[in-house]
Each structure stands twice: as C-alpha cells, then as structure tokens.
Design goal:
The protein is mostly helical. It has 10 helices and 5 strands, in the order ββαβαααααββαααα. The longest helix is centred in the middle third of the chain and has 19 residues.
C-alpha cells in the first residue's frame, strides 16, 4: 500500500512513500505521483477515496505540527496587533491554543467547491483566516464601525469565526468540515469569555459574529433554539454583517486578497 504525504511539503509538492516499491515499476511510480499531484492540487479533499485506491493519508509528525502551528500563528500577529483591547487579544490566543493542532496544516476547503487555489493545500485554512481578517478592515469602514472598540470586536470575530471546531475527524483519519462549526465555536467562545469576565455586550457581539458568520448557508443554526434565543436580536448587527461579508468574499474563487505569506 502507498502512503501519500499531502501536508508536509511546501509548496504543493507531494511525496509518495512506498512500502512495497520493489513490486512497482518506475513508470507506474511516476504515473501515480503525477496523478496524485494533479488531483490534489486541483481538488484537494482529504476524504477522497485514496484508501479505496490503495492510499492512506499521512499526517506530519507532532514536531512538524507544532512548528507549523507556531509559524501560522505568527502570521496572524499583524492582525492581533490591531486589536487594542488586551482581553480580546488574550481571547484570540486562548482559542488558538484550544484548536486541534491539525487545524494549522489543513486546507481551507474539504470539498474544493469554494476558496482560492492557494488555500487548497498545506495550511490553506490559516491563509483563509488571514484573508478574512484583511477583508474585515474594509468591511468595518463600509458599515461605519469607526469606534476602536467596535473594530476590535469585528476583527476578533473574524479571526475566530472558524475556530476552534472548523474540522471534524472521521474514523478513517480523513477530515471534513464540521457543518455545525459556527454554533459550536460560538458556544465555546461564550464559555471562555464568561470565564474571562467580559462585559455582556462585547461577549454577545463576538459570539453572534462567530455564530452567524455563515449567513443563509447555515441550515442547522435555527435548530439550536437555546443559542438563537440569546443571539437572534444581533442577526442584523453591523458586526455580524461585517464578519459575514469578510468571510464570504474571502472565500470566492475569483476574489484575490493580498496577504503576507
């Protein structure tokens, strides 16, 4: 069986580790490498049937994962520096710490339907967070959020909108998007903010921004009546609209957002 390492290399270069290389010709090996490279680059999807084709997904080592996490969080420091409220800055770091370590190397999309090509590979999800945060600076202006506190809240919600539970690990070791991640994240962040003694209004706006970020594409949110009873009144708040727009446009295949890489 061949093991395909899709996440360890940068840029998108995929290595095939062959357990039984002696049983395969060089030609077959080259064809397999080319096929996997093209397939992964064009349509990265951890749940693809590699196992059915004799392949299994290999994750980086714990050391590599830890290095990737530190490297990717460092890229977010630009946005953290813009958040002047030290408690919101601390909140972001606590949520980063709570995210499963694999989060920091996974692609932004597990279906390939949305997101630009640079996000369909190692740490693509973290590029998405950078792009949404970048877009938030335009969206806050569009919605008249000139007060520094409102800017801090909007940027915090953008940084955290997909964390810590964006991904769900399946029994076969592959990863899919957690369809309820918006509410799961909001509930987690609400608990954390209560522990940190945030004022109620800041807590509600951050949690609403995170929980409503999927807009009309979240068909599970309405089922959570307890969450909706708390946050429905914030559904049209400029903070929520700011997060929704930033996430939506940053996820379009035909929209380019410049970020530091």
């Amino acid at each position: 069986m061949n093991k395909i390492n899709l996440l360890c290399s940068k840029p998108l270069i995929y290595m095939i580790q062959k357990e039984n290389s002696a049983q395969q010709s060089n030609g077959e090996s080259a064809n397999n490498s080319k096929k996997i490279y093209e397939l992964s680059y064009a349509y990265y999807q951890p749940k693809l049937s590699f196992k059915g084709s004799g392949y299994v997904l290999v994750m980086p080592s714990q050391v590599e994962l830890a290095e990737s996490k530190a490297s990717e969080i460092k890229k977010l420091e630009k946005y953290l520096a813009l958040i002047k409220n030290p408690k919101l800055n601390e909140l972001c770091n606590k949520v980063f710490d709570a995210a499963p370590i694999e989060t920091f190397v996974l692609p932004s999309s597990t279906t390939g339907k949305n997101h630009t090509g640079d996000e369909i590979g190692k740490s693509g999800f973290m590029k998405h967070l950078q792009k949404v945060s970048e877009m938030s600076m335009h969206a806050t202006s569009r919605y008249g959020l000139e007060d520094q506190n409102m800017k801090d809240i909007a940027l915090t919600a953008c940084l955290l909108h997909d964390l810590p539970y964006r991904f769900q690990k399946k029994e076969d070791g592959s990863y899919i998007t957690n369809k309820n991640h918006a509410i799961d994240n909001s509930v987690f962040i609400e608990k954390l903010m209560k522990e940190m003694n945030f004022d109620e209004e800041t807590q509600n706006l951050v949690c609403a921004g995170v929980g409503f970020h999927m807009g009309r594409w979240d068909n599970l949110r309405e089922q959570n009546t307890e969450w909706m009873s708390k946050y429905e009144k914030y559904k049209e708040h400029p903070i929520v609209k700011c997060v929704q727009e930033s996430d939506y446009y940053a996820s379009r295949k035909n929209v380019s957002v410049d970020i530091d890489d």
